[in-house]
Task: inverse folding
């Protein structure tokens, strides 16, 4: 069972951006109920409605936080519609947000999912402030998910993009592009790859750190998220190769 | 009377951006005097000198914080000039910043305004760090505004853009455009409007949530700030309609 | 000697941006070891690999924080290579990051520098999370740098761009451009300059506050960092003059 702490940590991911008042309004509502809450931004800078990228970010970051942390994640094009609001309990962490696949990659065998009872007084456009934040803060103060929602068996969960393994190669794809232009693939660093070919046109040998190649040359590394990533040393591999999320990548063993 | 708490919350809004050292320098000065202060960013991403947009943001966000919160707001093209620095006490909250209209929309009948005594040692370009932050932190530690400034009757206050109501229509304008491209109007959600026409060319029926229309179609909703906003579902209404702040909007009752 | 506090302040500067999970992963690792740590972002928005600009920012901001603060700074194109990871103790503050010149401008005569012992388990691409954050949090909890590294005499340190002083003029350069487009020079405000000429083509008289000139006119001020800066009132001096970091500036006494 998850034990939340009174001075709990609440992380916050959204597509709200940092220019408007949406992010601080959510934080204010949290602090109104728990002035000792520690709120840590994950990101608010994804393109609007980037549910899959957000799911990948949550997968990569949640383990850096102590168990008992509440992860509030709101990318919610369906706000106000009949879509569910859920609490996901997994790996000793809580996740709170809309039921649209955001938590697909943090689920485990012992995952418990609860549909949140909606309040009638909530706005139809800002559930982060009116529904999700109050639930997150309640969890951070030790209230059990059973008291906040009803256990459900069905929830939206999409599959991690699958690999195709052949004789001496593995076919995957680019699943995330970071701010440096590094191309993060779905090919785990545990597979022993010698070199990658992207989009049938660019080759990247596998190395062990960025600076091992020359400036502006491609190199593939075992990245910190556990997957191979293809970088251009001192440059931007995404710009260089004109690759997008979903572009095919072939690894030669 | 407002009661500030020792471990007080200080919100911070500016046009400083997040790239330079201006925002953390202000936070450091706060923590030097009150290491237990909880500092929450409102926004630092507005276009430089956007006083009216900042005033609208403050109006929308301050109520999400507990009473006693100190709201530090510095958009200050007149820094170093003889413009006043003020403390505004309103609705149980404190507001600290330059006297240029920033606090126009948070004033109430019982608003008390105090002109801050300037220190001679302050720089001429960075009053956020040298004057406003020390005042904000003093308020957060329970020091009364009377001890920090002199009560004044006159201060800069601009009017909220007025509505024109006719027989079966209401004329307003776009007063804010958010990061999703939603067009926020000055027409309160309490007025029963059936549809909106923007700029004599675009029509938006009133609905109750974004997803009620088709992708890329306009829809008007009662927004979370209490005003009608016009959105393009899954898209960007501002891009689609080429509308700016100040564009006229007509609501048909 | 520096005394770190249990509930210590850790500032964090990087070129990671705010879109990916790199910044919150570092914060999570800090909170896992010290849940009472107060983490303040300096900036994550510099262009990738801007070591000199980051060094200037650190110089300008660290004094705003109380002594004992730990400043974690990671702009690290050489991550995973044999470059050192260091702790710098200077002016009663701690600085932690790669040994590539980041701490050049915060060193003093009594600076102590320690090379951090690397862990074998660290990733080759994310030392901020795997090496620097654990060291920063240890320092914030009172562990001595001697227990975390080995004293070294040699470390990378670049020189602050020098001035050339002649009979009635001083030659310097633009060393930083802020988000307002203000051109910050390396000419100290203690030198009595009457006017500046930039790039042989633009003239800026010295004034005492931005609003002292007309809109869109250049004016030079003693900036909050201690150096002359050239601004365009209500505008953007960098755009107006097409000046870059390194452009020569002449001050006439």
Result:
């Amino acid at each position: 069972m998850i034990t939340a702490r009174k001075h709990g940590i609440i992380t916050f991911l959204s597509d709200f951006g940092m220019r408007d008042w949406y992010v601080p309004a959510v934080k204010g509502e949290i602090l109104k109920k728990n002035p000792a809450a520690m709120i840590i931004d994950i990101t608010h800078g994804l393109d609007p409605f980037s549910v899959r990228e957000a799911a990948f970010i949550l997968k990569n970051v949640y383990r850096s936080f102590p168990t008992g942390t509440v992860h509030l994640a709101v990318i919610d094009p369906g706000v106000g519609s009949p879509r569910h609001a859920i609490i996901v309990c997994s790996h000793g962490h809580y996740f709170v947000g809309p039921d649209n696949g955001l938590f697909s990659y943090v689920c485990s065998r012992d995952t418990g999912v609860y549909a949140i009872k909606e309040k009638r007084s909530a706005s139809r456009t800002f559930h982060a402030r009116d529904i999700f934040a109050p639930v997150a803060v309640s969890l951070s103060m030790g209230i059990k998910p059973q008291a906040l929602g009803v256990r459900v068996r069905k929830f939206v969960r999409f599959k991690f993009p699958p690999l195709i393994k052949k004789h001496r190669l593995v076919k995957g794809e680019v699943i995330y592009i970071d701010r440096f232009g590094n191309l993060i693939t779905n090919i785990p660093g545990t597979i022993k790859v010698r070199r990658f070919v992207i989009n049938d046109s660019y080759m990247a040998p596998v190395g062990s750190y960025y600076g091992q190649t020359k400036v502006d040359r491609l190199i593939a590394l075992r990245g910190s998220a556990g997957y191979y990533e293809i970088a251009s040393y001192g440059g931007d591999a995404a710009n260089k190769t004109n690759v997008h999320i979903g572009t095919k990548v072939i690894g030669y063993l």
Notes: Residues 30 and 133 of chain A are 6 Å apart (CA to CA). The longest strand of chain A covers residues 169-177.
